[in-house]
Amino acid sequence: MPSAPLVAAHRLLQEATVELTMASTPGTDADELLSVLTMCEAAVRVLERVSVAAIADLQRRGMFAERGYRSAVTALADLLGWERSEARRRLAVAEQAVERTGLDGARLPARLAATAAVFAAGMCSARHVEIVARVLDGPAARRLPPDVWAAAEAQLAAKAGDYSAADLHAWATALVETLDQDGPEPDDRPPVPVNELLLTRNPDGAGGRLKARIDDPTMYDAIVTVLDAHARPATADDDRPDAQRKAEALADVCAFVLDHGDVPARGGERPHLTVAVGLEDLENRARAACLDLGGPLSPEQLRLLCCDARVVPVVLGGAGQPLDVGRARRVIPDGLRRAIAARDRGCARCGRPPSWCEIHHVVPWESGGPTSIDNCAMLCRACHRLVHHGGWDVRLRDGLPEFRPPRWIDRGRRPRSRPPRAPIRFRAPATRSPSARMFADA
């Protein structure tokens, strides 16, 4: 329950909000409305400072990690409904513009001392602080001598209240570039080649775009040679544009490799794991185990592992001698995994693709929960860990997964589901390519 001072502060905040609302009713004098706007902005900045200070203290205590979150950004997004970009901004301000605590418990000034003072006085917003921190962490600013860097930070802090966020960014960038008179050291080495392939799924979920840059001449030659060989017109009547023929040739080559090549397993095949289980633990429903290389597992880690893996159990006697080595057994059969992937279409909580995901037993496997589509949900590794260690619960409702957050995020634990997804549309193609007709005729 909230403490008495927090309850009183909440009551006063509500009363102030009511008063401001009454002061801005239709027909209020224009000067009064302008005063309302300035008061609201001042109040927002005060609340930003309180929020940032609370984030810094929680981060310093490790409270988010204790609740199962590896990332404070994810914890803040879940707790407050922020976009991840906003959570990163507040976290950056908390790290740069709040006093720190040394290893000996002594209070240390904020990293951006001058900016922190301006922020505390309500003369700039958290967005301004984030921009100052970003510019002063750039390559040009890191080349400045410490005294010049500190002077630049003081100048930026003094100007933060005079500019909009965009104007402050432009002015700060120009200032740092002016102070960095020597610029980066000359580098006579040839530029590092860039070899990258970017894949972007279309918003409606059907198809996507590929964008590549291949600087390595041998890699580029290999790709072009294969595509040229398969992109030639199939017949004299093949009037497909060159770009279309190359795209379909790439798909043909990839399909051939999937059918005949030695392709590393994707999400459908989990690692083989040898789990050593003591006989007494096995008789007690496997409350402890040990990996080949990873060492002992806690019950929580064992439950996470047993959700979706190929496990080889090795039963050990009291003296550590192997009593039985079982066969590798797939906890989630591949066919069931495909069915769950077709239903959830990726992580049921955050939407990551199925190839990044594992299968979670709603009713735990070690508690007798069936390995069936009605007791399983697809989760990425991060969301799976939150369900096992972060206090989140998952259940199936009307055949689809929904999640209940822990009480520290939502006291009422109101269920949350993944945002609506684009429906799957089944439609026949208007025309078939000559290559498709050729295979159909064959």
TrEMBL record:
Listed Low complexity bias regions: 423-432
Record keywords, A-Z: Endonuclease, Hydrolase, Nuclease
Pfam families (alphabetical): DUF222, HNH
Location of region: Disordered: 410-442
Coiled-coil segments on the chain, per record: none
Entry GO MF terms: endonuclease activity; nucleic acid binding; zinc ion binding
Keyword Hydrolase annotated: yes
The organism's place on the tree of life at top rank: Bacteria
Domain HNH nuclease per the UniProt entry, residue ranges: 335-385
Similarity annotation: Belongs to the Rv1128c/1148c/1588c/1702c/1945/3466 family.
Name of the featured protein: HNH endonuclease
Taxonomic classification: Bacteria, Bacillati, Actinomycetota, Actinomycetes, Pseudonocardiales
